[in-house]
Backbone:
């Protein structure tokens, strides 16, 4: 295998560039706390594992006969990096739905001002958004979606997608990414709707009671009540959340697989 890598070093570099670009935009691996050398080593290991499954014939016309780099090969490297970033970005969109759901009901809970730096999404995120993001990451690792993404999804992407197919199918790919952003808000609203609806009812009840008995000053007691109810609902709904997270990963990767099949020209008319 080592001799094959040495003989096909330009091809190995193409595979490693796509793997490294995907790691740079993939949740968990894109964290600044992960050393850059660790990402390079993991990208090299993934390229080593994927290389036997990649067909080299499509790269032959872009490699010089003497093994030197050409301008076409440089552009091909840039295209592979772009594909890797896009694949990692789509996974990030799936995780962003869970973080956005936490942001939706964190304001009603009274946690909107308690924003902390989220190492997974690398943005300022309310506590509830970061909490759901961490739960989703645990589900992602526990249900072996990470292994499926690296072992199967990454290997299949080399058979079905290259920079030329990406350019030829840019319309379908653009619609796919826009629909992914739309699904982000849809999934976030579905996740947060039970808690948002309950907190809205509590707020209305507090307003009615405080209007009926102003001396009770119930609005000042509303925040601890809403926090307590929110935590109780999170505990009660956590099994449903975990099931929904798992189904969201399944649907998201299924849609990505369908797109790759469509771009590769293997799908039906």
Residues:
């Amino acid at each position: 295998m080592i001799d094959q890598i040495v003989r096909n070093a330009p091809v190995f570099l193409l595979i490693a560039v796509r793997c490294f670009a995907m790691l740079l935009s993939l949740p968990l691996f894109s964290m600044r706390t992960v050393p850059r050398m660790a990402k390079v080593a993991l990208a090299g290991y993934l390229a080593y594992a994927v290389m036997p499954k990649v067909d080299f014939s499509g790269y032959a016309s872009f490699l010089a006969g003497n093994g030197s780099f050409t301008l076409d090969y440089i552009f091909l490297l840039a295209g592979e990096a772009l594909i890797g970033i896009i694949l990692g970005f789509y996974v990030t969109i799936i995780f962003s739905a869970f973080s956005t759901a936490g942001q939706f009901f964190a304001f009603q809970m009274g946690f909107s001002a308690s924003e902390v730096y989220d190492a997974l999404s690398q943005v300022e995120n309310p506590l509830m958004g970061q909490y759901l993001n961490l739960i989703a990451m645990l589900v992602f690792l526990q249900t072996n979606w990470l292994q499926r993404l690296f072992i199967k999804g990454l290997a299949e992407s080399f058979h079905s997608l290259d920079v030329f197919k990406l350019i030829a199918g840019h319309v379908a790919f653009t619609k796919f990414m826009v629909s992914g952003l739309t699904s982000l808000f849809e999934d976030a609203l579905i996740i947060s709707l039970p808690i948002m609806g309950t907190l809205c009812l509590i707020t209305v009840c507090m307003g009615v009671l405080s209007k009926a008995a102003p001396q009770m000053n119930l609005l000042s007691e509303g925040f601890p009540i809403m926090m307590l109810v929110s935590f109780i609902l999170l505990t009660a709904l956590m099994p449903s959340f975990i099931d929904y997270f798992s189904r969201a990963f399944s649907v998201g990767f299924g849609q990505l697989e369908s797109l790759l099949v469509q771009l590769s020209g293997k799908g039906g008319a």
About this structure: The longest strand covers residues 115-118. Residues 219-264 form the longest helix (46 residues).
